[in-house]
Specification:
Helix content: 55-70%
Distance between the termini: 85 Å
Strand order of the largest sheet: 1-4-5
Number of helices: 5
């Protein structure tokens, strides 16, 4: 009769894995039983019914319609959309900023190159968690409350409402935003024309620099 050799390392490892799996299943079943018992005592049965209940909260920023009578499922959807939108904006702007600083680092302009060097060395060598704590504790928590917000360009409307061109508090910054009017289309043409003139002038300066051998007069 062949007997299993319990001194074999493979047998010991397999047996240890079975024992660990059984111990883990026992702990999880005990936690599940305690959770069900606690919910039952409070009249709360486990399930997904809470998703259809009213959230009872207000969310300031939302990409889809939402109020405090909307369901918890819609609140989760609002939070998910807010997270996605902030993530996309952060990726786009951080990529643009990194590309701009990288180009500044390669610039032949001494001032621009060294400012980019200092920025890169300082930001790169500080852990992200330290930066987050610094901005939250030292900057945002040090700003005044909403009722004592810093205002620039304060004015009062004919209806008696008080406004300003800029509100700055520990809740964030609110800027005046332009609205379209009867002559707004003319400004679009002016901006497009200014961009085209800048591009053409930059191409001309580069061409003149190559033909004359003189350094073109560009910022970067």
């Amino acid at each position: 009769m062949h007997l299993t050799n319990f001194n074999d390392d493979r047998v010991i490892k397999i047996a240890g894995q079975f024992i660990f799996a059984a111990f883990l299943i026992m702990i999880m079943s005990s936690m599940y039983g305690n959770t069900i018992s606690a919910l039952t005592k409070r009249g709360m049965l486990p399930g997904f019914k809470f998703l259809s209940l009213a959230a009872g909260i207000d969310i300031g920023e939302h990409l889809i319609s939402f109020n405090n009578s909307s369901s918890n499922l819609r609140a989760i959807a609002v939070g998910l959309l807010n997270t996605l939108s902030i993530s996309i904006l952060a990726i786009v702007f951080s990529t643009a900023l990194g590309l701009f600083v990288g180009l500044c680092r390669l610039s032949k302009n001494w001032l621009v190159k060294n400012i980019a060097l200092v920025y890169i060395e300082v930001i790169r060598n500080i852990p992200l968690l330290v930066l987050l704590l610094f901005w939250y504790r030292a900057v945002f928590m040090g700003l005044p409350h909403i009722k004592e917000a810093i205002t620039i360009g304060k004015f009062q409307t004919a209806e008696g409402f008080t406004g300003a061109h800029l509100f700055f508090s520990n809740r964030g910054m609110v800027l005046a935003w332009p609205t379209t009017g009867p002559g707004w289309s003319s400004y679009i043409y002016i901006i497009i024309g200014a961009v085209l003139i800048s591009v053409i002038f930059g191409i001309y300066l580069n061409y003149r620099g190559k033909t004359t051998g003189r350094k073109p007069m560009t910022l970067l």
